[in-house]
Amino acid sequence: MIPDRLVAGYKSFLGDRFSRERQRYEVLAESGQNPEILIIGCCDSRVSPEVIFDAGPGEIFVVRNVANIVPPYETNGQFHGTSAALEFAVEALKVRHIVVMGHASCGGIRSFAQKSAPLSSGDFIGKWMSIIAPAADTLDDPGDNPSDNYMMRLNLAAIEQSLANLMTFGSVRRRVSAGELQLHGAYFGVATGLLLVRDPETGRFAPLAEDVGTPPSLLRCD
Amino acid sequence: MIPDRLVAGYKSFLGDRFSRERQRYEVLAESGQNPEILIIGCCDSRVSPEVIFDAGPGEIFVVRNVANIVPPYETNGQFHGTSAALEFAVEALKVRHIVVMGHASCGGIRSFAQKSAPLSSGDFIGKWMSIIAPAADTLDDPGDNPSDNYMMRLNLAAIEQSLANLMTFGSVRRRVSAGELQLHGAYFGVATGLLLVRDPETGRFAPLAEDVGTPPSLLRCD
Amino acid sequence: MIPDRLVAGYKSFLGDRFSRERQRYEVLAESGQNPEILIIGCCDSRVSPEVIFDAGPGEIFVVRNVANIVPPYETNGQFHGTSAALEFAVEALKVRHIVVMGHASCGGIRSFAQKSAPLSSGDFIGKWMSIIAPAADTLDDPGDNPSDNYMMRLNLAAIEQSLANLMTFGSVRRRVSAGELQLHGAYFGVATGLLLVRDPETGRFAPLAEDVGTPPSLLRCD
Amino acid sequence: MIPDRLVAGYKSFLGDRFSRERQRYEVLAESGQNPEILIIGCCDSRVSPEVIFDAGPGEIFVVRNVANIVPPYETNGQFHGTSAALEFAVEALKVRHIVVMGHASCGGIRSFAQKSAPLSSGDFIGKWMSIIAPAADTLDDPGDNPSDNYMMRLNLAAIEQSLANLMTFGSVRRRVSAGELQLHGAYFGVATGLLLVRDPETGRFAPLAEDVGTPPSLLRCD
């Protein structure tokens, strides 16, 4: 049977949050969803977009794959889950913001940086993570034992890669040109709670800290 | 800049939930994640797994794609995001439960049932949703104007398809045989909050309602 | 035997241009090439980059393929001629400018716009031109009989696509960020000789006409 | 902005060559191109086919890739730029001659002969140059430090390979059999200006020297 933890969690949701927001759920079921934001996040159990942005039902359309990657537009191959979600969000829902959100201690990024052995004969992780190879090309070679600092920089470079890949989709490019869509990068520090946000002018990531009065101790990004 | 809604939501998270759970985040950053549950859910903005199961950081590894689909194991083609996440969850994290969770009013399911026109020349949604074609083959032809009831049945059939596709992965099959991994199906009614759970014996979906004292009015699954 | 036209042309080259520039050829053979510019142009017989820019030996590294296309960075598949040339130009030659140059009456663009039947069972042109499908997505549907104006707009949109695809290469992105590399778009009007150049700020193409005192009659871009 | 060198070169073209040949450009724009010759040349900045053969607009359809390579006919994989150009030239333009033209000091050939390290993680050059591996198999192993002479012989062998690969395209084979298409090999000595041309009977390359009265000193092919 479904694990007890989920049964208990669902009871809690039903008695608490669903009770309070029930009308909202009913309206959303009636009218359909109409989110303005697409977040492409990681599957990691510590980085739920709805939690980190305290979002309610209907607010964020969420793709979660390993290491929050957007592949480039390509039509060979058959099944492109992330491209499908992107197409749906942009063309059908007409979202106005796309946020690619990475996070510290990402297992996918580490696997790539450490050139980990395949996990199965399919080597799905190896193939999937190869999408960020050109991001690694923008950094110096880390040698055999990549540091945490290198992995953070690789993570930010991979977000840049995904933002560049987003622009290979004609629908994205058209809406960005028309001012109807903005692309953003963000990076969540699990230990510190600190969120780095990409400056669209300079491409640099800086903490959203001042804005939120984060105490100095949070400024370390693990 | 990053939308105000996200800035405000992040502030709220930082001041409230992160403050309360800070130690847990720090421990999780130190020790790494160790979730026991993988949920494969839909990108839809109304069905966050962490919300529906009131889950905290570290509890659920989450894949979200359009219509919560697991493709079959296949190695031709290059990038398989969902298979990569599955491989990581099963082989690296050794999760003990996989839940495929559908929901009412799923845009991907509707797009397939209504044979919608491609959203772009890439037709990513069309190709992606074609994975559930064999699920549709298990149902009668709905004609040109599929009913809501048909779409719910198609959704449940698609969950069956994904559960069968999961079993095409050797690592999944091996762990299921060894009793180390259980596969589950679930379906969330957005309007009612009702959760249907699949009975692994009979394959039928039934409300978790009695368990949670859901009032009769919730028994309608929209 | 090699066609007479080439024999005669080569004699002419040897007696005229090679005689005059012989020292330059000798120096270039000794020192190796060191061009600062990569032009990605079309195979079309009317649009030689060396002719249009009156370039001498050693000045321009030239890729010519059908419709002057840059594919996105991708590593599946085996042989990527254009990506190979790009890698060589950027990483080995360290060019400082990349110009994607389209032209009027491009057969590849027309073939795509008119959804022409495959030329052979391999359908190499069809597959190759499919790279610009997302560019077509940025324009309105031209219907069954696309106008010349539509084909020009598709051509400019395809140049945008190639510029976006260039940015999916890590080496390109890194050098652009560092100010070591600039990307340009251009479009040559065969009948008029007019060259449109892309404004990097606005993304709009405008004639280089004022700069060169082009008479008004040249302002029509066929 | 577009580099000054190109602006100046374009002005020169417009004032000189375009002025003189304007009618030809207009006619070509009106009637479309109708070249009889396809040249497959190298991207190298020192070997423009239009310069070496003193060709005017409309005379030569030109593919330029690294090391003037024709891949064999193959349909798996998606984007084949050179095969697409070949298909277009043979099937749509019905060219009567195809010239594969190599040149001295080719960086692609050298990279292959010296087993150079990948230039980026994509290793596009390495993959692309692997097409000539069977050509290298026709020569003795050059050891770790291949001589210039070896590299010239490898270059000629690679041209043979490309001519053989051309014959793997059914459309080429058919037209060659019907006497409608001829295949040629050529090799340009950058330092000397000397052009070696392949004898279709013997397969040997010999200078076009007598024909053009090249002085003996040019007979060295660097």
TrEMBL record, chains A, B, C, D:
PROSITE patterns: PROK_CO2_ANHYDRASE_2. InterPro entries: Beta_CA_cladeB, Carbonic_anhydrase, Carbonic_anhydrase_CS, Carbonic_anhydrase_sf. Its cofactor is Zn(2+). It holds the Pfam family Pro_CA. Its EC number is 4.2.1.1. GO terms for molecular function: carbonate dehydratase activity. It catalyses: hydrogencarbonate + H(+) = CO2 + H2O. Keywords: Lyase, Metal-binding, Zinc. Reversible hydration of carbon dioxide. PANTHER family: CARBONIC ANHYDRASE. Belongs to the beta-class carbonic anhydrase family. This is Carbonic anhydrase. It comes from Labrys monachus. The lineage of its organism: Bacteria, Pseudomonadati, Pseudomonadota, Alphaproteobacteria, Hyphomicrobiales.
